[in-house]
Amino acid sequence: MKNNNIKWGIIGLGKIAHKFATDLASTENVTLVAVASRSQQNAEEFAEKYQVKKAFNSYIDLAKDPTIDAVYIATPHSFHKEHTILCLQNKKAVLCEKPFAMNLREVEEMIAIAKHNNVLLMDALWTFFLPHFRYVLDIVKNKKFGNLKNLEAGFGFYTPYNTESRLFKKEVGGGSLLDIGIYPIFAALSTLGKPKKIESAATFFKNGVDSSCSVVFDYGSAKAHLKSTLLEETPTEAVFTFEDAILKLNTRFHETPSVTIYKNDKEEILDFKYKTIGYSFEAEHFSQLIREEKKESNIMTFEFSKDLIATLDQVREIIGLEY
User: Which one in 69, 153, 211, 292 has a CA-CA gap of 20 to 30 Å to 164?
Assistant: First the structure.
């Protein structure tokens, strides 16, 4: 299946689905052939915009379509497990948007079903695949600036409280932690690993979803100070302090390809410019895994996905957040 054109479907047609579809259009040897929404009109409008042949108002119909190789799940958090399993049971490779699911138990069930059906499954945390973040991971691994001693990472924006919005609905996993807090936590886990100790505190909206969450990961020889908030605009940077230098992923660190290095009183800015939004990198990786008939990513491994969701579970337990 080496050079095959990978045929994609998308389930759930919100904002992220539009970004993913835009990037698929500029990715080689892939074609978006079908989309599905609960609304036929929404599906048809999306399909027309991106020149997609098939528009379904049924997720089941898309999952059963024999022409599809891969499905991108972009529905709200609480539906990730259900829609992933639907596609896996119909032998479709699944790239599921973050958070992978609501908790570790759901993620383990998804992975077990993927293995049972011998189908590829991957957690779609796109930052892991972006060039500027791969650069940071390489710096950490080869200890170019010595050991990593401290990480400060946050993600925050202000948005008016609105219980009609997915962001504020507890039943679909709303709140700052799962939606944006996952990025700082991911930055820590991918560079420093699992912490020895976690401390966390949160504030809450009146309906019980977290409005902000502060987390400290203690590694003994290093610390990570992490924050997410829906109450204010924050720099949304990630600052890595090494023994011999400071490396800053500039504002909107999870997507902006700009890195500043501070070393010996000098400042150097690296720009990892790319022509797409950035979802193309995970789409290319996933499509290549299908061509190579792999069932698990060597980058976003099942072990890492489980560690990430288990850490989010731990934080939720500490702050008393239940869905």
Answer: 153
Chain position carrying tokens 């990593």: 148
Rg, the chain, Cα only = 20
Per-residue pLDDT tens digits for 82-140: 999 999 999 999 999 999 999 999 999 999 999 999 999 999 999 999 999 999 999 99
Are the C-beta atoms of 247 and 256 separated by less than 8 Å?
no
Return the closest-CA partner of residue 20 out of 253, 30, 230, 40.
30
* Dihedral over Cα of 125, 131, 136, 142: its sign: positive
* Cα three-residue angle 87-107-285, rounded to 5 degrees: 65
The DSSP-derived string for 195-252 is -SEEEEEEEE-TTS-EEEEEEEEE-SS-EEEEEEESSS-----EEEEESS-EEEE-SS
Give the three-state DSSP class for 312.
helix
pTM of this structure? 0.97
| Exposure class string for 147-170: b at 16+ Cβ within 10 A, else e | ebeebbbbbbbeeeeeeeebbbbb
Q: How far apart are CA 50 and CA 52, in angstroms?
A: 6
pLDDT exceeds 80 at position 1: no
Provide the token pair at 289. 């895994």
The answer on pLDDT for 2 being more than 80 is no
Q: Structure tokens of 122?
A: 């991957």
